Amino acid sequence: MAKNKDDKNGKERFYKRLRNHYKLVVLNIDTFEERFSFLLTPLNVIVLSGISFLLITVSAFALLGWTPLRYYLPDYAEEVRVRKLAIETALKADSMELELSQRDEYINNIRLLVEGRIDTSAYDASAFVEVDPLEIEYTRSIEDSLLRKEIEQEDLVNLNPNFNRDSKTAYLLFPPIKGTIMDRFNVQRSHFGVDVAAPKDESIKAIDDGTIVIASYTAETGYILQIQHDNDLISVYKHNSSLLKKEGDKVRAGEAIAIIGETGEYSSGPHLHFEMWRKGIPINPETFFSFE
Length: 292
Prior knowledge:
Blueprint: H1 2-18, E1 22-27, E2 34-40, H2 42-66, H3 74-115, H4 142-153, E3 180-183, E4 193-197, E5 203-205, E6 210-218, E7 222-228, E8 233-243, E9 250-251, E10 256-260, E11 271-278, E12 281-283
Antiparallel strand pairs: 1-2, 3-4, 4-11, 5-10, 6-7, 6-9, 7-8, 8-10, 8-11, 11-12
């Protein structure tokens, strides 16, 4: 009886110690000034430690199970590698099986041909009738003639397209973009165009009807477009972020051809470097357009 009472008292003292309040104080070692303090009990410490351990464990499993970090696990990486090898092996086996089947069929046909055991009863000899080409009469329709004429006149990269426009007739050009001029035309500085800054993702338009003769990328000027117009006029568009047309495409005046960007080593921000050339001579674009 006394032993049971002692055990009961011991448990009560243990639970009481778990609920005893302690104060954790952080002091400045030089001035002994109290910086901050916490009121803790052993039970709170045990509960907080358990919750922290649980959170860390769950977070670790989540990171290793649902992020690319799982590929760094030795077992998982090996499993992925084995699975990849199995897929590649299955594909190769399927390809080899198909090739072997085709080879066997080819060899069998050669053997039948050499042995003269080819069955010709299944062939319809009437389908192979000798026809004299001179006896064939062909009349070209009007639609066929028009189509042939259109195809013959079409040129994928026509350096001098003819849009039935009189070279002496004055006409208006479409401004390629609206914005702020950052650098003007200056032949002395070998700057044969104008730099026009505009908002991001602004579309660039063709100044006139023409044919795309260059649509490429260079390290210095980034994505570049060059259009050949009539009257020996060429327009050049540099530093685009992307091109909407390709070489050989025919474009109309005002049609979107590219998106403004800052590609290329010579670019210092989103802008369009625009040039105009006629018969090999650079032209100041500001004599034709008001960009602002």
